[in-house]
## 1
Amino acid sequence: MFGLKPDICSIPMPETYFGVDDYAKSTARWCPGCGGHSILSSVQKVCKDKQYPPEKTVFVSGIGCSSRFPHYMGTYGFHGLHGRAFPVACGVKFRRPDLNVFVVTGDGDCCSIGAGHWLHAIRYNMKMVVLLFDNGIYGLTKKQTSPTSNLGTVSNTHPRGSVLPPINPIQTTLGVANVSFVAQTTDWHPAHLYATIRKAVDHPGLAFIRVVQRCPIYMKDLYADVASNPDSLIMLSHEDGIQLDPAITKTFKNVLEHNPGDIHKAREYAEIKDSIPVGLFYQNTENANYDDYGAHNLGISATEKAQAINELLDNYMN
Amino acid sequence: MKEPKEISFTEFFREDVFAEDVPVQEENLVLLKQEEEIPLLDETVPAPEPESRKYWKALRNYFMTGTKTSESLTANVAPVLLAPYLRGNTFETDYPVFYNQHTDDLILLREVLSSTFDEVLKKDEAKILHQNLPRLELLIRNELKEEMITYAFADCINNAFQHLKKLDVHGEEGKIFREQADKLLQALLKLEGRLIGFSVYTPFHLLNLQLKVHYKAVEKFLAQVKKQQAALEGLLLLQQANEPNTPGTTRSEFDFAQGMIAFEKMNDMMPATASQGLSPARLQRMKECVRQLAAVQQYFSDYQVRVYVSKELSIQFNLNQLLLNAKVEEVSGASILVTETCKQALTAFVSMMAAMQMAALEIKNAYNEELHDAYFASFGRMHLSDDEMQSFPLFILIETADELMHAALNDFTSMLAASLPIKILAVNKLNGKPEIPNHLASDKILMKQELAAIVVAQRAVNIYQGAADTPIGLSKSINEGILSASPMVWNILFPDFSQADSKQQYIRLNTAIESRFFPRLKYSQDAGELFGSRFDISANPQVHAHFPAYPLEIKSAGKKETAEFSISVADYLAIQKKHTEQLEIIPAAYRTDDLMVFSKYLDQPQQELVGKIPFIWMLDDHNHLQQAAIPFTWLALCKERIDFWQFIQELGGVNSYHVKRAIEQSRAAWEKEKQNALDAMASVHAEELENIRKEEAGKAMDRLVNVLLDLDNQVYVPSIKKDILEKTEKSSSEGKKEIVTEPVKEEESLEVSAEVWVETFRCTSCNDCTNKLPSVFKYNADKQAYVHDATKGTFAQIVSIAENCPAKCIHPGLPHNPNESGAEELIKRAAALN
């Protein structure tokens, strides 16, 4: 040993290690075969890997099948209003930057009633992970057309088939200013799903993941063929992208090299229709985070703020 | 009804929305902590010219006389690189080391833990335990108390694991973690030995442990002596039995074996020489050998290594208790005594070894009187091999380096010159050292007599200079010294005992060595024939430099930057409070370019140093960098140390003056040769060029003349060479070749599993199978399904569940009970899923 070096043993280490069970609570009441189960167990595994203290982790959701998610997590949760998961989550993060914030939302919750909040949350780019459970249908209310339902989807609201083309959540998100992380994965490929969420939690801004999800009750036929056919997925591969075990990478028949720094290519690939591209479309770690401009992050104390408000009000007294 | 409490507008905000308890992100906390620790370099506003001039006059006076100026700052400062550690930060050391009492190996505790972990567990499977190995090391270290020298390993790790297992690991992982911890503990408990901590006693303790190596060699030697003695006695007995006048001797000697041995037959079997009777001279020799061999055994019967030490040192280090494997003799003037005793022992040992060699020859009956009589008549130390010398009794002298270099210098040098295999441990104490004189008076010579230099000049004496900060290296050198047939000097630096804290002791010791105040050095004549190959200074950091330098992040004008700081002799001096008081800490306003950092100052030629004052970087309590000027006395002392460093650098073949000169000379010669060759080539080239030009000019002139005279109708057309054309055609046709590859045929052979199985990695954790057949399907730690017991469910149930599995990752295989009703039908359904 040359020279005095800091002692590696004196680096503080966690006193508590959490297991998967610490992140689980009650039995998930989704239908058997629902993609939600797969996402739930992947999220729990990621929480365990990162050793997020349950009391420092919040899952915020809106309304829908997906939004039951916070009930099944042994962490804090907020089962909010329809479409309002984003503003609540932004509020939590703004006020409590120490918390690990997750937003769980569905295609109806996010892309329909909550679309306005969706765009602005992307632009705010606060550090959080957004999981869009996209099964292309309103399941909780027994099958109505959602904004991502394919053209011609027969539902209770469109008995003769839907007439408008669906929103493409990936393309839409890529179109918002200050977007910093967009990825797509499926519920029936647990290894890829897990790796995607694992990548997202380390992103320094808002990480948006669209999970292509099966509804085994109302949209049984939508992804039935796709799920059993490995050719239907295209893996976007890059050294900066989602990293998988080489053995699992081999199970993908179609691999497309894509640099997640290239937003134009990302937009091009987002339009692939005949199969489902999975992987990291776009990532930029340099984007601005709106919560950095919060008062406490700027180092302004409560007294200083109160004083400033008083001075401002005093101006109107004279 | 209770009236609602009136809340003022400000209070509302203060109490609710702007409450101050917003926790900061943990990552930020770490950052903040680091930022605090980064040294700051203040921006300076230069003082006005007259004031500055006045100060600098006083500063120059300080440099020459050591009298501090009136404006010197009185901050509590410490050398930049060492300040955090001097102020309590923990640092990495090689301690504690583990001593394995079976193999006599010394291993770092860190390596013991990690290698044992690798033996019994896999990193991927025991992530939490692997992550906590540093914690385990820390827990073991916490078990070590300051006042002890060694610790029972088993006790320490048992206690440490008790604490480790209290770690709050939840769920299934917790159970696994505790099982793995137990497994590691059991593996560690199999290693028997002790832990050695850092203390002033450590070098003696390591010496005591290494003495075992010597005892092993002596034991081996004695076994050989016994064997030879038995063989010789056997021969003598047979001789007696064979003599006619003493017919009953053998018989009586082997009386107990009556009836078992047929003595008549034995005589026939005896070697021819023995049966023919021994010559009187040979008989005499053999008897003498037997006597000598018996004397050897007598000599070694209660043998102990002799350690000679002055009474003062013995009491100070409690050597009677420490060196349990040796006999400690407290004497004054030990050098003379040890030389005499060793000389006598060597004479005795030489005759013993002669007897041994003679005995070996006699047993083989290979003693040739013509040849061997002369050999043994002149037998001496020179005839003994290094291996034979390993069993020579060990004489160890322990003395302070001061005593050896002053009062006992004559005895010491004559002892070295006698080339007796004495091992000397020189004790260098850091207490109160070095003394810096206030003024550099003419009669005070700072040039220090170096023990290492004196020893190296003897050529036949090995030396190791170092300290206990590297226990493995020290222990290895002690081992080598004990096993070597050459004399050995261990010149060991001991920490400052006046410092109560062992961490402070370690810092001073380590810095003394790193700063070249007491550099590490090894000279071993056994290492090679050539003088240069015997030297080793590679255990010092950055051997090519005057002083080792390390990068450090600092903050200057609000920006982070990396600067390099060195650990020089002056930095070493500045650790001590009494020395720091002699430093002039220069107020920021007076900083100019005339201040030169000390390590750079030493490298400059004399003419560049006019008007310059050397300084070292110090860090004050508030983490600000301060420039501290050093007085001339410090400079002189540092120069003297650097002089010695350069001396051993040269010996070690680093920055060698002669090598540099030789390189310069050969480069100059080579460049000259190259230039000559170039010149020659250039002249040849110029000549050729000139010839061609002349030739072409002649041809052109001829053509011109012919054209002008209209005698030649030919027009000059350059022709394209045929082979070039062919080449281009060939290459273009190659490009057109189609690459035809045969399609790779993949043959897939699918075997149907006899039992139901799950592709676990594809399971989406939907709870369907685990809810319907919980005894057959279970989740693993990753909450993905696997088959727990296939026999707990009917094939019909399994097939039905497999059909419903959303991930289609359950493969029913074949029914475990072939007699199940409707089995054939089910097998058909299952076939689609297998």
## 2
Amino acid sequence: MTQMNSKLVDQFLQDVLTPIAPSSLREDIGNEIAGHIEENIQAGMEYGLSEEKATLVAIEKMGIPAELGKKLADIHRPRLNWRVIGPTAGLMVVGLLAMYSIGRLSTQLIFGLPGIVLAGLLAFTDFSKLKRFAPALYTLSLVGVVLAIVFGTKYLGQPYLFLGPLRINVMDAGPFLFIVGLGGMITQARWKERRSSSLILIAMLLPQVLFCIANSLPSLVLFLVAAVALMHSSGARHWQTSIIGLTGIVLLISMNGSDSFVSYSNFVANQTSESHTDYILSYLLGTFGKSIGVLVLAGALWLWMQLAESIRAIKAETPKLVVIGITALLGSEFAWSILANLGWAPMPTVGINFPLLSFGGTLLVVHLASIGLTLSAYRRKTLRVV
Amino acid sequence: MKINKELMKGSTIILVLMVLGRREMYGYELIKEIEQSSDGVFHLKEGTLYPILHSLEAEGDVESSWVGDEGSRQRKYYRITRQGRVALKDKRAEWASFRSAVDKILFGNTQLAGGLR
């Protein structure tokens, strides 16, 4: 194409792309429209037009650039996923009501409010920026878990870290922090390369070993489920996924399971002890009746389904993987918590919480932040690359 | 015969989905295909095609991917999704009942309308 003609095309593209913000989206749309114009120029020249004439006709055919740009910008406008915000807010309100009736409202609010602010900040930060923190998040979590194991104070058999007056529940937060960090680092391309795939495998094994050492059985199970989900969706080979799965199971078996669980009958005899955390659902049912139970279950199911639905809509690899990891974790927590409350699954002495409902500051912040991340991923769901 | 713009408006989405239902295509090809299979009656304006494709994709009715080696010309191919096929089926049923109602009013009975086509 002569310089003059390519200048005309560039000018047209520039006018189309003016209202469109993220650079990867600009590139994507620009290439697509440019390709179309080129095909039209070629067709025009085959028809017998001069190159200049063909270029003018091809551009003319595309219509008014500013109008096209505005339409496309509107389609790709960032959107908040209210279908996730709705049930999240609903569950939180029920949770706060429950805490009020148990007399722990203020503690829950001290964590809940910053949690909401953090979720909001994350939701409105572009994933391209968040992605850069993934390795740091993973490393920090590793340090936190090791510190808790070495220096932590044990409570119900699980180590906690103290930061001044704050008791940080590192083990419960661990699966989320590790999985989000890993989701931000794994790519399909990395599985294909020998060195980086071995590194990821090690990065997937380390948390399992640490959870095993810390005797945090639920954390190990949750991490394992989400890790396998991440590997499966990111194109890991079957043998790679099998290694992680099998090591996890071996570690699980090696843990002394008997003191990690309370029996259901034991709990029923001593209902009040853990009612604010693990047995929050039973407490709600007992205190407020069946209808609230049904409401909570419906809310949890709805939230989970909306998260799963948003996975399909998110195009870029990294945000998609992070949301897959979070959805797997929240889903497992919901399922385990519900089944254990019904007496259909073993209840660990610590570590299984009903997301957004159970008492526990660290985990409330972690859960809200995770929801914030899914919102950020959804806002820019049409981006192919972040 | 040239078709009025307003008449085209309501039917472009169904045409795009229909054509993509047959096989995956890139934008330029899609316009040609619609033109050809309507015997030249429908010419989709290129300026309207891309907003339609992009919003269909945002809704999950179609998905796209760039095909072609680096360096040579890459084309963005669109294909219909399972959700898109369901949407297409609904739209076809809607169109059929709309058409038969309009035909009934304009031509009295549907038999005649069929004959006119």
